[in-house]
């Protein structure tokens, strides 16, 4: 028995050393196996540095308290939703037509000055007026119609002097714009958001217009979702997002090149779920001469009108500086999307303000809003009286 005990201890020691040696050998083997496959050697002009072999590091033991900390860090954390109190939007001041229509007025001023400079109404008077109306892009039909009516009244001696003629022209111009319904249609119904679609070619000011309209609607107490339906331009979505943040509006975008209808439908469903009043949807404006864009817009219009959405406005955005060219666009977009009204942007920088007449009388579309500058408050309801007055003085 006394001899057996030391022998047993010696045997246990030998077995122990054996196990440790085998484990070490396995660890080394695993380290080699886990290494990535060797890369092909790149030939280089400079000799490769000599590899320095580090002595093998002893296994790192993680103390139990650190293990607990790691476990805690990896555990799922409950996220608390914090309602951010947003400061109310500032009500911005509306610019006056008179102050912003300097360029459009200039188209008429010199003609009116020469009309006034004559003692009576002569053939030159009619030429001056016709030239001014055409230069302002009123369009030949409208210009002829306006002047023919006035000629009859001059012949009938109803109008006898140049000043009275200009007054009569002003009244005629106001009358031509007077009848249209320019209100933006909104039909409140819980769970069924109104959808206002914005269509038009790139660069006319669509995104900026949606931003300005959204801001004004939020100031008026409506809740708004902006939908980045122009999925072909990432920049458009980013620009719209900035406007949405500024206007305290919700925002929905899709993947680049994705289906615009899907993005808009998503925004409508989100609006319905949250009882949001209004979805303002941007659309693509590229390739307006190709049928596929018009097909795309047709689809957008159909999808937007599906429950729970209700399309109450399709607003065609036209750049006033493009003058009569804008009308060709208007026709195509109207055919595809049943346009309900026009937003005429950049009237502040345009000498072709007469396009308003061509749009209203030629196309039968009401100009509902006009852009008088780039700032958030520079989109205003179109006021025909104020507009015509601004052209005359
Ligand atoms: P989109 O491509 O149709 O979406 O056009 P944007 O909204 O990006 O506008 C194009 C440019 O027109 C921007 O620089 C706008 O600031 C500018 N813009 C838009 N509306 C007006 C306006 O009423 N007046 C002026 N002066 N610039 C405007």
Question: SSE string, helix = H, strand = E?
Answer: HHHHHHHEHEHEHEHEHEHEEH
Label the overall shape: elongated
CATH superfamily descriptor of the domain at 194-339: P-loop containing nucleotide triphosphate hydrolases
User: What percent of residues are in strands?
Assistant: 5-15%
Class by helix and strand content?
A: alpha/beta
CATH class of the domain at 194-339: Alpha Beta
Biggest sheet, strands in spatial order? 3-2-4-1-5-6-7-8
Distance between the termini: 128 Å
Associated small molecules = guanosine-5'-diphosphate
Rg result: 37 Å
Estimate the mean pLDDT confidence. 83
Please describe what this structure looks like.
The chain has 393 residues and is an alpha/beta fold. The protein has a domain at 194-339: P-loop containing nucleotide triphosphate hydrolases (Rossmann fold, 3-Layer(aba) Sandwich), CATH 3.40.50.300. It has 14 helices and eight strands. The chain has an eight-stranded mixed sheet, with helices on both faces. Strand 5 (310-319), helix 12 (325-337) and strand 6 form a beta-alpha-beta unit. Helix 8 (206-219) packs parallel to helix 9 and helix 10 runs parallel beside helix 11 (291-304). The longest helix is centred in the N-terminal third of the chain and has 31 residues, at 4-34. The radius of gyration is 37 Å and the shape is elongated. The N and C termini lie far apart (128 Å). The model is unreliable at 17-55 and 77-84 (pLDDT under 50). The structure holds guanosine-5'-diphosphate. Residues 200, 202-208, 236, 285, 345-346, 348-349, 371, 373-374, 378 line the site of guanosine-5'-diphosphate.
């Amino acid at each position: 028995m006394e001899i057996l005990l030391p022998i047993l201890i010696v045997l246990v020691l030998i077995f122990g050393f054996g196990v440790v040696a085998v484990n070490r050998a396995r660890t080394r083997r695993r380290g080699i196996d886990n290494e990535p496959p060797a890369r092909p050697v790149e030939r280089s002009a400079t000799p490769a540095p000599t590899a320095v072999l580090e002595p093998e590091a002893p296994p790192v033991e993680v103390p139990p308290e650190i293990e607990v900390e790691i476990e805690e860090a990896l555990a799922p954390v409950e996220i608390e939703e914090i309602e951010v109190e947003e400061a109310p939007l500032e009500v911005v001041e509306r610019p006056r037509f008179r102050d912003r229509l300097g360029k459009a007025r200039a188209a008429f001023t010199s003609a009116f000055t020469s009309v006034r400079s004559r003692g009576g109404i002569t053939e030159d008077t009619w030429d001056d007026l016709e030239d001014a109306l055409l230069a302002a892009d009123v369009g030949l039909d409208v210009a002829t119609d306006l002047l023919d009516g006035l000629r009859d009244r001059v012949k009938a001696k109803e109008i006898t002097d140049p000043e009275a003629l200009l007054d009569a022209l002003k009244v005629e111009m106001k009358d031509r714009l007077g009848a249209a319904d320019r209100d933006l249609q909104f039909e409140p119904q819980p769970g069924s958001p109104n959808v206002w679609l914005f269509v038009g070619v790139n660069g006319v000011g669509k995104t900026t217009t949606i931003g300005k309209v959204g801001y004004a609607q939020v100031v008026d107490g409506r809740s708004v979702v902006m939908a980045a339906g122009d999925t072909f331009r990432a920049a458009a979505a980013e620009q719209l997002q900035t406007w949405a943040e500024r206007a305290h509006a919700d925002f929905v975008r899709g993947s680049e090149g994705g289906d615009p209808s899907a993005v808009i439908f998503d925004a409508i469903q989100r609006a319905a779920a949250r009882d949001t009043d209004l979805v303002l949807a941007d659309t693509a404006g590229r390739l307006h001469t190709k049928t596929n864009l018009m097909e795309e817009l047709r689809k957008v219009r159909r999808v937007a009108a599906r429950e729970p959405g209700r399309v109450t406005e399709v607003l065609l955005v036209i750049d006033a500086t493009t003058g009569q060219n804008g009308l060709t666009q208007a026709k195509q977009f109207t055919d595809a999307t049943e346009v309900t009204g026009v937003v005429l942007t950049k009237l502040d920088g345009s000498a072709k303000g007469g396009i308003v007449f061509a749009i209203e009388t030629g196309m039968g579309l009401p100009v509902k809003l006009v852009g008088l500058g780039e700032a958030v408050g520079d989109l205003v309801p179109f006021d025909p009286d104020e507009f015509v007055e601004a052209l005359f003085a």
